Structures are given as structure tokens and as C-alpha cells.
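The data are quoted verbatim here:
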Amino acid sequence: MSIRPPGPLQLTERFLTFAEQQLEQLNRNHGYQHLALYISQTGDKDHPPLVLIRQVSAADRSLPPADADPELRRPAQERRWYPLRDGDLILGALRADLGPAEAWHPQRDQQLRDGAAALSHGLATDLECLQLRSALDQQQTQLRTMVHQLRNPLSALRTYAQLLLRRLESSSEHRPLVEGMLAEQNQLNRYVNALDSIGQPALSGRQPEPAPLLLPPDTSAVDTSLKQQLMPLIERAMAMATLQGRPWHGPEIWPAWASESAEIAATAEIVANLLENAFRYSPPGTAIGLTPLPDGLCVWDGGPAIDVHEREAIFQEGVRGLRGRERPGTGLGLALARQLAERDGGRLELCVEPSRLAAELPDQGNAFQLRWPEPTARA
């Protein structure tokens, strides 16, 4: 990060305390008339003003501000300046004035150079922290504004969907689509609420909780079966496959575990990421499906197998396979899915021979297998 001189002057109490300690240590038993720390402020481009922020002086004689000190306009043999640098940038200067009967010698000069170097590093770090804090504050303000602006259209979409649902007969074939829209709107609300909580200050006296991997728990789904949680995703996948003109293969027979609660709390989140990944990166026209297995489930596609050198790397944050590098994305979906699975004791693995998992699956392709925690695999 490029460090900028402060303007107007803003420094943390931590650095100011550090500066006082450095000056007192340098002055100890060395007989300086003055030791002073000046900081550059942004002003005239060629001549940034110097601001006196800390000093140690003999006989309680304080130095005046830099622009009001006539002695600074005259060279003096007893005075030396040591610049505070960050690369080519001058952040300030350390001033040292010898006392009466004192003389300059290499050891004294080296001590002051070392002190100036320590102050330079501390000041550069302090300014960088202040800039990062300012940038973070701006980002949080923008995020809160964005969240506020998102709530209005989401509320309108929900209202329209509810009105549409009321006008449909209970036997209408379009009801599942509208109900799916409402379910997706609830999911979006969860994302918005999660975004709104980012960066909120913790209550005093409480330890900060670990950041969720993806979303906070959906308490409305505690008493629902895994099949009920997955059906909105399956209906969305069916609609997406129709729009893209590709075959979709959903579950025809559900195992016993489908009527119970999920072994892995975030199963729906994991499946949503796997389906999104399949629809985004598999070639056009390639079949996609979700198949229940005795000890879990898999999301698969019938496209070319992922390259052998990428099969493990794609589960790392920010890593995208060769097929996905020219398409929009963050490279987070598979990484998050595996983290969520492992958090609850499950496993997420890639199999490039889907028929090994179930006879009805293609011999070649990509099957992401989500396995329930051991030893509670279900029959």
C-alpha cells in the first residue's frame, strides 16, 4: 500500500506513546539540548509543512512550532536532522540539538540513525493502519447503503409473488414456480441479513463469534426433512435446465434418509453451490443431475472430466479450473461447499467416473459426492 503523509494530522495514541518512549531512550545520559520529532503534512506539493508532535528538551525549554522557530532558518553545527523515510517518501524528521560541551561522534550519530529508522517504521505502520481503517469504514458504509437499497426491490418482489399466488388455483401447475420464487426470496433475505451483520461492532464483554462460512443457520428449516429442503433447489434446477436446453435428471426414488432431518446442517447450501457450479461450467447441452446415494448424494454432469491436475486444487479458495477461467466467478463455491461439509463431519469429493457411484449415471463426467458423517451412514 502507498503511504501518504497525514493531512490533516491524524496519528494513533499508540504511535505517539511509542514516539515518546523512543525520544526518552535516545536522550538518556546523552546530554541533548533538544530531541524533537516532526511529521510531514500534506500541503504544498514541493514543501510539505513539518508539525512538531513530540519533544524532549533540557531545562524545560520547549521548542516553538516549526514555522515559528527562527533558529531553523540558520545552520548550526550542534544541530542535525535525520529523515523519517518510507521508500522515497519523507514522512517526517528527527531533530537532535547537542547540549553545551557536547560533541558529535560516530556512536552518537549511529544511535540517532537507528532511532530514526525505528520511528520511520512505526510511523509508516501507523499511517498504513489508519488508511486501511478509513478504507474499511468507507466499504462498510457502502455495504450498508447497498443492503438498504436491496431490501426495497426484494420486498416488492415478495409482494408481487404473494399476489400472484393468491390468484392461482390450488391445482394450478404454476403454483410450484411461484412458491419457488417465494422460497428464493427468503433465501435472498438471509443473504441480505448476513451482509448487514458484517462489520457490526460486538457487544462489550462478549467474545466475537467465529464468522459463518456461508450463511447463519436457517432456523425455519429445523423441523423440515432434507427432501423438503432440497425440493426448491431441484425445481430451480429443472427450470434452469429447460431454459438452457439441456437434460436434467432429478431423484425418482428417495432413500429413507430423505424424510429425516439433514445429517449435515448446511446440506441445502452445499447442494446449491454444486448445482450452480454444474450449470455454470459444464458445456452446453450436457446432462446434469442430482442423485441420492445410500450414504449421501451427488451432483453430476456428463461433460469432459476435470483435468487430473485440477481435481483437488478446485476445492481451494480462489482457484478456478481451466474451463472456468474465462467465465465470471470467484472460485469460492467448491471451497465453501467442502468447508461446510467437513464442519459437520461429512466429506465432499470429486469422482470422474460417476457410474461407480450409481449404475444409472454416465461412465464419464464429474460427480461431486457429498457423504454423510461416519458412522451414521444411512441405508
